[in-house]
Amino acid sequence: MSAYEFVRPLLFALEAETAHHFTLESLQKLHRLGLVRASAAAPQQCQRTVMGLTFPNPVGLAAGLDKNADYIDALAALGFGFIEVGTVTPRPQPGNPRPRLFRLPPARAVINRLGFNNAGVDRLLENVRRASYRGILGINIGKNADTPIERAADDYLECLRKVYSLASYVTVNISSPNTQRLRELQQAEELDRLLGALKREQRMLAQSHGRHVPLAVKIAPDLDGAAVAAVAGIFRRHEIEAVIATNTTLSRDGTDALPQAAEAGGLSGAPLTVRSTAALKELVRALAGAMPVIGVGGIMSARDAQEKIAAGAALVQLYTGLVYRGPALVRECVSALCAERP
Predict the structure, then answer these.
(1) Would you state the CATH architecture of domain 3-338?
(2) Which residues, listed in sequence order, are joined to residue 269 by a DSSP beta bridge?
(3) Which residue in the list 175, 176, 268, 276 is annotated as catalytic?
(4) pTM
(5) What is the mean pLDDT of the chain?
(6) N or C: which terminal CB in the chain sees fewer CB atoms within 10 Å?
(7) Which pLDDT score, from 0 to 100, does residue 337 have?
(8) 176 is catalytic
């Protein structure tokens, strides 16, 4: 039994959000004491070149776990090939009222309606500067809840300008179900306008900073076939560097009879696996090789990670699987994906 398997029942006895913060704080303390042994560097054949960046291995941490970049060094020691922090907004905001995070253990699932709770982009950048981590860092950006959807681009542009110099890539989160009307930005006209503004700003920032920072867009798993085809066309037209598929789902398939399944928010974990991979396949088909796709959603085992790669993902990301499996999941996925080349 791993150490995490031993302590998981104790963590699950705590309220979910309390356990989340306790786990990260404990990991941080152990890391500072030198008790979190950094995973051995992955062999060279593990490397993947995606978005013009060289990833030491294809297994990353998804956004949402470390919203303020408080724990980068400790998380990196678990063996991730890249870390994505955020979602961050221009101004600090508390998010939705608690309770807002719920575990569904029989389904190995989580429901969250956190609502982009974060300390603001300036605090995140302070934490990034303070960290020792020099690997690939994605910074996931969003809009403040009180910013009207008609002015959403202003928030994304402000975040892009501020994070540009410290990010390896920037993810545009338009698919969280927990900020009112945010998913409207996936509609063709709104998406076209937003990405046009961001790409223009990216070109200007690349000139002023002397480096090109790729833009990725994170989409929902709940888009139908026509919507996937529409967004894929817009991504291609604006030459977005990558797409992340997918965010959490509003579906409750596989959890309907469970306590707390009726809670509002996005569902992640094992019930999302099939839906997310199906959306990934459809997106890969629609993009026809125009840009890479990063697979995330319901990766609870190495097999799940392998299925994302087989479906066309260039890289994968973990989150809810860590809640149920702990650090062993990272090592398992790295080992499995490094043993084979796509």
Answers:
(1) Alpha-Beta Barrel (3.20)
(2) 109
(3) 176
(4) 0.96
(5) 94
(6) N
(7) 96
(8) yes
